[in-house]
Amino acid sequence: MTYAVLKFVHVLGAILIGGGLIGVWVADLRSRQVHQLPQLAEAVRNIAVFYDGVMVPGALLLLASGSWMILQSFGGWGFLNVPWLAGMVALFAFEFVEGNTVTRLYFMRLRRLTQDALAAGAVTPQLEKARAEQIPTFTHFLDLPLLFVIIALGTLRPTTWTPFFLGSVVAIAVAAALTALVPRLYPWG
Amino acid sequence: MTDNTYLLLKSLHILGAVVFLGNIIVTGWWKAMADRTRNPVIIAFAQRQVTPTDFVFTAGGAALVLATGLGGAALHGLDYMSIRWLSWGYGLFILSGLLWVTILIPAQITQSKRARRFAGGDDIPEIYWKLGRIWIVVGLLATIIPAINIYWMVFKPT
To answer: How many domains would you assign to chain A?
Structure first.
């Protein structure tokens, strides 16, 4: 019964994190497509709201229920010998740390700079510079593909490390392609 | 082979549920936040996103959930009319789909058309707000119904 409740919470967490990431993705894309400040400010505000209001609660639900399930089923570090589970934990930990140290902070800064630009009535050089930053753009585009790899590992449960490495490489390639392509499709500034 | 096919279907089923339900939640939130500003420019900007994201993510996720659910049941020869959690799952899914097709889609298409007219900053007509209230109430219902399905799918009560 406890396991079923934890699994239920885990699925809810996955839906929230997935929904939040899709919301952030679409809002970011919209923010690149528009050139008027009010619409840009609204899109950037949505990015921040979806990040903090949907994605982070989902990540916390996943963290709590996932840790509990691992403790209950493996009683410690035994999960490290299970490739699909160790892979999921590694990718989730990476995404959690990267999300809170690079991507989230970047979007919060972008929101502040957009508000400053809105108050000034024109796009500021700081906003233009922030919009062109490559690393947070890459980590943002990496979030969704990595989540798909995490979900695939959890459901397919492969017994070797190959799918983990293959999935990670594909996710990085997709993120790199989007980082190169999207800013060119929607030049800004 | 059957096991691998089942696992693949299950992965896509969960992926479909994440995309489908996740997008419903986010779209509703986005639209509600924009409507709260009562700013025609912001509302028109948000409204323009509702229909395309619905067609790509909500419809795409729903199609994935349905196809992989039917595939998984067929693979194991499950009769979904006689298994309680499966029949409830399908029933609620169909009910949510009906609400979506008969009320939500027509309402949001009309709202989008209206929004295009006031995108320049003109007054927002009363019909927009009336449809917005319907959209929120029915949309909430169409979100809660598939969310209940997670209970049936995870606990599988007999």
So the answer is: 1
Instruction: State which residues form the domain around A109.
Output: 2-185
ipTM above 0.90 for this complex: no
The whole-angstrom distance between A57's CA and the closest CA on chain B is 13
Q: What is the pLDDT of residue B1?
A: 54
What is the CA B157 to chain-centroid distance, rounded? 24
Closest CA to A147 of A167, A177, A173: A167
Contact in structure between B4 and B112 (CB atoms under 8 Å)? no
CA–CA separation, A136 and B55 (whole Å): 29
- Name the residue type at position A36: Q
> Whole-model pTM?
0.88
Stretch among A107-111, A180-184, B26-30, B131-135 having the lowest mean pLDDT? B26-30
Contact: A15, B45; criterion CB under 8 Å: no
The number of C-beta contacts closer than 8 angstroms across A and B is 93
- A172: its two tokens: 């990085």
Residue A76 is encoded by which pair of tokens? Answer: 């410690």
Mean pLDDT of A4-20: 92
What are the C-alpha distances in Å from B100 to residues A149, B31, B107, B112? 30, 16, 10, 16
Residues contacting A66, CB < 8 A, separation 6+: A10, A13, A88, A89, A92
Q: How many CA atoms lie within 13 A of A100 on its CB side?
A: 9
Test B26 with A20 for CB contact under 8 angstroms.
Answer: yes
Q: Is B98 on the interface with A (CB under 8 A)?
A: no
